[in-house]
Amino acid sequence: MRKARCSFEDCNSAIIDVNVDDVILLPSSVLRDAKLMQLSKKPSETQQTNEFLLVNDVWDFDNIGVSKEVPEGFTNEENMREVQFEHGGSFWRMDKCLKYLICSDCDKGPIGFGCSLSNQAQRGAQNKVVYLLSLESVKYV
Ligand SMILES: [Zn+2]
């Protein structure tokens, strides 16, 4: 299994094992609008989508830091309406972003965020909080 690590050579902290079944594609606007760290040069301007790892439980991380709240501007309904994805046989919509994720050792980031999701198939019936780690923002080997 491949592992996501902090991209900074001096740090290289292990963040999480990447299970490919939990990798989802989100519109590049998510990476850009949430102002997540990008390693390659402006990938969001040339790519339509970016890979994120969906993590159900914060304890699944080897190491992770939780930082400040994601600004309201990004989490308003206008931006979020388009952000839907399939995972585990259901379609999920991002309802609200919560807090940024950062490297727990060197505080570099943000490399992702926590967010609340709702299940489109059973609207109102199923909500959960997950963590979305941007694979553009970490070293992934
Ligand atoms: Zn680090």
Written account of the structure:
- This protein is mainly beta.
- It has one domain: Metal Binding Protein, Guanine Nucleotide Exchange Factor, Chain A, CATH 2.170.150.
- The chain contains 4 helices and 10 strands; from the N terminus they run βββααββααβββββ.
- Strands 3, 4, 5, 6, 7, 8 and 9 form a 7-stranded antiparallel beta sheet that branches. Strands 2-1-10 form a 3-stranded antiparallel beta sheet, with no helix packed on it.
- Zinc ion (ZN) binds near residues 8, 11, 13 and 106.
Which keywords apply here?
single chain; 141 residues; mainly beta; Metal Binding Protein, Guanine Nucleotide Exchange Factor, Chain A; 7-stranded antiparallel β-sheet; 3-stranded antiparallel β-sheet; 4 helices; 43% strand; binds zinc ion
Which sequence of SSEs, written as H and E, runs from N to C?
Answer: EEEHHEEHHEEEEE
CATH architecture: Beta Complex
The portion of residues assigned to helices is 10-25%
Rg of Cα set: 14 Å
Sum up the overall morphology in one term: globular
Q: Which regions have little confidence, pLDDT < 50, spanning 5+ residues?
A: none
Number of domains: 1
Number of strands: 10
What composes the largest sheet? 7 strands, antiparallel
- Assign the CATH class: Mainly Beta
Structural class: mainly beta
Distinct compounds present: zinc ion
Summarize the structure.
With 141 residues, the chain is mostly beta strands.
